[in-house]
Amino acid sequence: MHQPLDDALGINLLHANQAGADHNRAHLDQWGMTCLNLMSGPGAGKTALLEQTLAQLSPELSIAVVEGDMTTELDADRLRQYGVPVIAINTGRACHLDARMVAGGLHQLAELHSPNDIDLLVVENVGNLVCPAEFEVGEHAKVALLSVTEGADKPLKYPVMFREADVLLITKIDLPPI
Ligand SMILES: Nc1nc2c(ncn2[C@@H]2O[C@H](COP(=O)(O)OP(=O)(O)OP(=O)(O)O)[C@@H](O)[C@H]2O)c(=O)[nH]1
Ligand SMILES: [Mg+2]
Fold first, then answer.
1. DSSP secondary structure code for residue 84 in this structure
2. Does ligand 1 have an atom closer than 6 angstroms to the CB of 127?
3. Which CATH architecture is the domain 5-171 placed in?
């Protein structure tokens, strides 16, 4: 019975978010900063991938991270060890980062570091295969991870994430099949 109202609210929410994402994107383009939105189910290896990326590409490439987690700064602290700017955002009960939250992260980043000097910004989204795919944050590309331990049915069960992704990385391929 409430379906049309729910649909209208959902569309307005996404519309408002898209306006915020476009605003973020304009800042990123102005600064010459490429932004990737890293998404996956919990534990697929987003932070592990970032650890390896920072170890191998920083400081030749100037990288910063916006780290989204519901409650802790555990992932942010893992990445701070690499000496790069890491802005932690706690989403509270929200299961994804939205454009407004990332705008706050960008402002913090710009206050602490010269944004023109950062080449690559990686946004690690909250571990979730559903919500992050619906909310753009201004990224230039969406990177999805799928670990072999999650099961091959996941792209069928969570199609939006896998349809929206510009790049898909299969992780944990070192683990033997069960
Ligand atoms: N064997 C194996 N383990 C991995 C690999 N990538 C990540 N892991 C392990 O998987 C666990 C979860 O990795 P994280 O990088 O924390 O995963 P995440 O996607 O950041 O998790 P959330 O932020 O909680 O969503 C850790 O114990 C990692 O060491 C991989 O390629 N192979
Ligand atoms: Mg993580």
1. S
2. yes
3. 3-Layer(aba) Sandwich (3.40)
